Fold each of these.
Amino acid sequence: MLALSRKKNESIVINNEIEITILDVKGDQVKLGIVAPKSVPVYRKELYLQISEANKEAANADVAEALKNFLK
């Protein structure tokens, strides 16, 4: 993991197309601004994990249903 120090209104750039800017710092919270192409999805990690788990469950359900149909 790369750890960088940034102050308010300072940014980092990832792969020449994603810019992350520190908008505000209050106590233990940091507000980030993210500029990225529309083709790049940006999620909070907890939401990303929920989506990933739901996709796994759906894929498993599809496989189970396909096997049931195949065995009939």
Amino acid sequence: MDIAIAGVILVVIIIVLSIFLYYVPILLWFSALVSGVHISLVQLFLMRIRKVPPSIIVQALIEAHKAGLQDIRRDELEAHFLAGGHVQKVVHALVSANKANINLTFQMATAIDLAGRDVFEAVQMSVNPKVIDTPPVTAVAKNGIQLIAKARVTVRANIRQLVGGAGEETILARVGEGIVSSIGSSESHELVLENPDSISKVVLSKGLDSGTAFEILSIDIADIDVGKNIGAALQMDQANADKNIAQAKAEERRAMAVALEQEMKAKAQEARARVIEAEAEVPKAMAEAFRNGNMGVMDYIRYKNVEADTQMRQSIAGPAQPKKDK
């Protein structure tokens, strides 16, 4: 029974000691003390109450102290952590900037970190510039030949422009625009192929890194390929369009001519019908003249002679007419 009670007491002591060491991290305090960082156990306990991990703050203070950064305070690190920042990245960036003689203050580093940028990576990029490969940029020279260019842009982080400055996408867009403008202003594609560095000079002279988080160090044309003859293609398209328009107008004129021809045929048929109708009235008129005594036999004979003479003249002047059956 005594052994069971002793075991329960031991478990309770272990639990109480664990809770005590959790809220009062003595080992962490001792580690800070031997590293030259002065921080009280009360402050470590209050960090637990404020839900700030004491290990992160103490390790950041130790790193800053060993690097010779004496102006970093505990309450500033806590405030930055509570604001959602990355304390370790900020301290790493400050140490790296101090070793590289880069002017980076704690306020600036925390502002960059809270802005959503990796401040430690930015410091590394300031020391070791980054090379960005642009996607293929297509442009057309004045002689109508298409060129496809690829460039490599060497950039360095601009610490003072990291807050509010544009990113890599803006750099790539501006470089692509500069390449298109440079090739488009060239008289021929041969000049561009002979002097590709002229593109770099024109693009660099435009100050494309203005308002961005980077500083462009160089722009190198990695490759230029010759594409299609856009000018000739456009001329062919224009010629095809003109041909289609001319064909449409010719078809319209042909349709109008056909309609006019049909109209003239209809009028001719109508005239022939009237002639036939008038000729049909001649025998009636002659019969009426005979009955009334206005026409005699000799008059009729003379009429037939005139008709026969007319038929003879028509047969001589035109093609032979088929003989009518009597």
Amino acid sequence: MKCFTGRTDFKIEEPTVVTIGKFDGRHKGHQKLLSRMLEFKERRGYRTAVFTFDAAPASRIAGTVQQVITTNQERRNNMAKMGIDYLAEYPFTSDVIHLSAQEFLREILIGKMNARAIVVGTDCGFGYKRSGNAAFLREMSSRYGYELEVVTKERDASRDISSTYIKEELAKGCMEKAALLLGEPYAIHGTVVHGNHVGGPVLGFPTVNLIPPEEKFLPPFGVYVSRVVTDEGVYGGITNIGRKPTVEKDSFVGVETYIFGLNSDLYGKTIEVQLLNYERPEQKFDSLEQLRQQLERDKEYGLSYLDKEKALC
């Protein structure tokens, strides 16, 4: 996949089928849009192209960090995994903010993305004050000569599946429900860094540590049953999210995972930690021995949960 990040000076030469959006979470609704694009690619031979911004618009407007389910790097990974050919992470500047819907369509979607087909959801919005929508795209399709497909939203019972809905479930620690809406487990990607070296030598639970970026939306601090994807394979584990109050003096938030059955050195390697089930909140223990005993119980809980999950597959 070719990615244009923070650039306006690009032009895709091949005819494309394009979609637009934030794609935070790549949930079932997003997957439906992307699947429609792949169908266009198969039928028409168009390359698939996704337009998004390099930062959440609300972050740039308000000057604060907006929490996202998937970071930019995670979104790139997701798009590549889906087989998307081009991803444009466009800079959200004053010039872009003030583009009319027609200018956005003509200059960006047609001019830079080379759209011959456009696939959007029923609630899409673009251009100044979101003046462009699905009806506008349909009206302009004959003028600019592109095909248009408007995809209805995926629903969960009576509610539309959205990033907001998923964040609500994550905030409650409802990892199974979040996975149902996402179509896959909620995950944290990152490069393994050195921790405090207490887990292995002192507690007998060697762990790998990730530092999530500031914008990453995290579920409640606590212990989770997890699945860890590495270059060497996929393993079960237990993961703590939080500040490790029993052993840490620092205040940074970390993601620390004890991986079942893996003793390899993962420092400097990129891994994916999928959170499957929220076991308990993070707590401070009076001694390292109390913490070690709790970790033994966490391990048993994790192994039991994974055994039940395997039996259901």
